[in-house]
Amino acid sequence: MLHRRLKKEFHFSSKEIGTFAIIAILSGLILSFRMWGDGKTIDVNAGIENMIIMSIMAFIAIFVHFCGEKFYAIWKGMETKYHANFPALGIGLFLAVLTNGFAFILAPGYLMPKVKMKSRVGKWRYRPYVREYGYMANFGILANIILAAIFGAFIANPIVYKFVIANILIAAFSLIPAPRYDGMHLFFGSFYNFAFSVGFTIAFAVTLFYAGVGYAILTGVVLGFVGFFTVFKNNWE
Questions:
Q1: What is the extent of the structural domain holding 71?
Q2: 79 three-class SS
Q3: Cβ(204)–Cβ(171) below 8 Å
Q4: Domain presence at residue 100
Q5: Angle, CA of 201, 205 and 206, to the nearest 5°
């Protein structure tokens, strides 16, 4: 049963948790790069405080993201191994330094699934289908979107605002179709899935801060289907 497998397998190793923490600290440094003063003078105390806050927010967002992916993997009878993406994160930090925080890249890493023969669902195969990598990525992105939607009604609070930003950015950067990103799995797993996910996430992120959670979800669904049918129309022709 699923609940038994979740109870037994739904956990991360101490090494994975430690890597999450390192990724979160580096992400917090990137996200707080423009929070070390008023732009003219550097306020070390404010900078350290903001970096700690953003690191905590990034850790929660990253942890929730991979909890969503872990849930899907266990549901489908797969085990996972976390892989960090330090090269991309290093590039992101370099861009933040080079542009004074105006441009950056986040790289939460990804989970690599492997089929467990005794826990499989459906016909046995030696490795997961590529589209299942994409579906697993969807669950991680969806977990961040749900958190952003729940707390989106309280973004007037500066701490909550930072938390929502962290979740949206983790979800958005996960869509990059590059090695060691979830977006690579989405892109090659299904163009339709990738198009819908990109359209929904972008529309949700932009609309949330201007029109609220309800309109953000509605706009996300609409733009997601626009992307879906655009890819469908091009492939049909």
A1: 2-165
A2: strand
A3: no
A4: yes
A5: 120
Token representation of residue 30: 């990137």
Tell whether 195 is covered by a domain.
no
Q: CA–CA distance from 110 to each of 6, 65, 80, 237 (Å)?
A: 20, 10, 10, 34
Tokens for 178, please give them: 């590059």
Tens of pLDDT, residues 21-49: 999 999 999 999 888 776 677 778 888 99
Q: For residue 34, which amino acid is it?
A: R
Residue 235 lies in a domain: no
Asked whether the beta carbons of 89 and 58 are under 8 A apart, the reply is no
Predicted structure pTM score:
0.89
97-154 pLDDT, tens digit each: 898 888 999 999 999 887 765 555 555 455 667 788 889 999 999 999 999 999 988 8
The reply to whether 63 falls in a domain is yes
Count CA atoms within 13 Å of residue 87 on its CB side: 5
